[in-house]
Each structure stands twice: as C-alpha cells, then as structure tokens.
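Researcher: Re-running this chain for the archive, since the previous output was lost when a drive failed. Same request as before.
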Amino acid sequence: MLKPYATQPFETRGRLYPEELSTFRSPFQRDRDRIIHSSAFRRLKHKTQVFVEHEGDYYRTRLTHSIEVAQVARTLAGALGLNEGLAEAVALAHDLGHSPFGHTGEDALELLMKPYGGFDHNAQALRIVTKLERHYATFDGLNLTWESLEGIAKHNGPIIGPYADKKKHPEDAPLPYALKEVNDQFDLELHTFASAEAQVAAIADDVAYNHHDLHDGLRAGLFTAEDLMELPLTGPAYEEVDRLYPGLERNRRDHEALRRIFGLMVEDVIAIASNRLESAQPECAQDIRDMDRTIIRFSKPFFQNLKAIKSFLFKRMYRAPSVVKERKRVTEMINALFPLFMEKPELLPAEWRHEVDGVQSDTELARLVLDYVAGMTDRFAIQEYERLCT
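Model: Regenerated structure tokens:
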C-alpha cells in the first residue's frame, strides 16, 4: 500500500501529448516499459561502465548497471511505501544519455561541445526520451509522464535555486540546452527536489556502483581482498565470512563479503529514510519536493565509510594505469570522430544526413553530430574510428 507521500499513479501531471490510460498498467509502469523497449536502452548493452565493453564479458556495462540500479530502487521503494513503478522507470532511464566509453567519453564531448552549449548526460537522456526516440506515430520521443521526466532531470537534486549544488550548477551558468528545451515545454520545477521515488533511484545508483565496482575491480586484478580488508565496511564483512566459512574458495569469499556490503547499504538507507519520513510527516508527494534537503540518504557515519571506499576506488580503479591508458586511447577516438563529422557531415548515415539540410548554424550542426556520436556504442565508435580515421 502506498504511503500518502508516495507519488500516486493516477494523480500524474500527465504527458506532453495526452493519451488514454492503460487498462492494466499505471502511467509509470507504462513509462518503464517504453524505456525498456527503446533503442537507447538496448544500446546500453555495449556502453562502458568502467571497463570498455570489449575488455571482458564478466564486467558490468551500462545496461547491466541500469538493471541493478532498478532492482535496488524497487526494493527501497517497496520497503518505504513508495511507487515502485516510478522509481524503476527513473532508475532504468538515468543513464540513457551516456556517451560511449563512460565518463571518459562524456568528458571529451563536454569539451568539444563547450562552444555549442555543452554536454550533460542527464540532459541528453531527456533529449533522447523527448525527441530522439522516433517510433510512435503521433509524437517524437517516448512521451513519458511529467514525473518520470522530472526524475530524470532532478534525481540528483535541484538544478537551480538555493538548494542546487553550486559546484555542479553554478548560479551564472546557463541551463544545458537539452534540459532547457524540455523545461520550456513542460516546466519541471527545476528549483525543487524531485519526488521520493526519484531520490530512491539516485541512491540506488550509489548502492549499485559501490557494490559492483568493487566486484569488477577484484576480477580485473586492480586490487585484492587483502586490500579491501583494510577498509571500513569491507574489512568487517570479510572477517565475518572468514569466521563463518573458513577456507572458502576465493570467488565465493569475495561474493559473500560484497553481498554483505550490498545489504548493509540498502538497510542503512531504509532505516534512515524511514526515520526521516516519520519525523517530517509529509502529507503528499509535493511535500517531499518542497523540503530543503533530500530525504532519501545514507546515515552520516555510513556515508563517511562509503567515502573511504570511493576514495580507494578512485585511486586503485578509476585511475589505475591500465584504465588511464585506455581512457587516453578512447578520448583520441572521440576527439577524431566529432570534428570529422563536423567538417564532413556527408559521412553521417543516410537517416541522419537528411537532417543536415535543415541546420542553420554551426551550433545546430554540432548538436546533431553530438546526438549521433553520443548515441554510439563502444564497439561502433571503435569501428567507425578505424574505418574513417586510420
């Protein structure tokens, strides 16, 4: 049963293009299904999480990561009496705007797009679900509900106003153009926090990547279980496994320890969020949006322990020599492909070339090229680089 502060399924603010309600799915379940069936979602299968997609079948990709985030979001939403359909929809869509090669590709495109309005993967996700997915007869995009669009835009917090993160969103910085286009059409109230369900999706992202990056880093040999035994949370988890299952085979030992970390993260969020919700007594979903801070969060002591793990991962995984070497290689690919298509847009595929005829400025062309390059999978970007640039 949904709590009063949950997003009620039939109180949605609607879609940009009105549609009849489904007879057997809530509006947010319908959003979830449209996201799953989108082309952009399928392409996440071959997009980097940390390791470039072709480096091994066992590592997470953006697709498997998104599925894991959705699983955590469903669990948290269910435990807190929130709308699972909305939390799942936002979780599944949160990385749709990622470029090939993970954050490395995003960093490269951000620099390349600086003269043309910049690049932001959350804003690009909105562009995908409102414009670039073109399958339906009467509209571009997926025609998601206002609540799902709001969650994609603001799951990490307000974009403008007193509660916005000034490091991520400086007061004098213009909105990313892809976000502004959507917000001009369908006011997403960028000065407020998002729904509790979108906040659940955001923290589920933290839970998922903190867990699976440890797992992938161990598999890649970037660090060992002995290294993790020196850290808070992971050290006690390994000690408990060794006490319960002495002499356990290495892979099973790692799995048993890391699944305990996973459980601890979920339990901490549920306990803290339950206490905060009980104390705040919000009477409706809007009360959550109008607060002065997120209500779905880790406890302070737990968050400090997670910061130690994140710092360890940054040094030993995200900036490992082998990863840095690969980052340099794939950055060169993006830095070659983007200017090439800008100079010779006739190299774009036929279904993109007809749009070139309608562009009226270098900025419009750059945004068209960005949509194409950002939508590439890792393997396709590598193939195109080898075909066109070598």
